[in-house]
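User: What would this chain look like folded?
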Amino acid sequence: MPTENREFRRLLGFTNQEQVRKFFKATDFVIVNLARVERCNERLKEIFRAIHQAVHTEIRVDNIDQFCSKVDVTYQILNDNNILPRMNNYGRAPDDVYYSWMRGYLVCEYFSKALAQIFGVEKEAIALVGDDQLTNIETFSQSPTADLEITLPDRSIRIEVQSGFTGTNDIKKHKVVEAKRLLSETGTLSYVVHFDLFNGKAALIDISSISDTGVHWENRAQMEDQQVFSIPQNAFLWDLTDAPQTYTAILYQE
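Assistant: Here's the prediction, encoded as structure tokens.
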């Protein structure tokens, strides 16, 4: 076996062996399947047009055509900032990561009107505090920071918006850990609002108060083997075909 020569790799412009291997194999770049991304964009529009027809009239967006244009606008921003090739979390294809991210992003956008009604605030009073910023790939990391913040008369609350499309509905453990830290340090409550769009229901869960011993944590292969717990069926207290109630009426506490 030849003697390792780090200096030669440095002259080539690399700092470790794996970088050199990928360079020589031409596996150091990511090719985005733009044709699939474009088809995904069209499917996203179809999905939200279907959701728009199914949910209660009180929570529908005012203009579904205008809402669907968000797909094209958001895609253009990501493309212009060269973010798409870097959306390859855990080795997944960028078009898959893009589709999953965009679907969740649009759920949060679509149901913002419903969230305002649930928490009794104006839509403009819901502030975005999550780490996802469209022009910076660094903020697409797996951060536990919640998506939204709502200021109520007596306190601020954080809202993590989740969506399920297969009938499997989980909450990741690191979200709960972060929620408990935030409650301990600032007194801020954290809720998950989970939209099960496979079954047309939604759950509101206080993740600040989840018992350390009261839930069963399991590793979920489909979620990068992270620890999760399954949201119980009796937590889904709101049918999306019904008008939303206040958050106190649909809140589930373990």
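The longest strand covers residues 156-164. If you want, I can go into more detail on any region.
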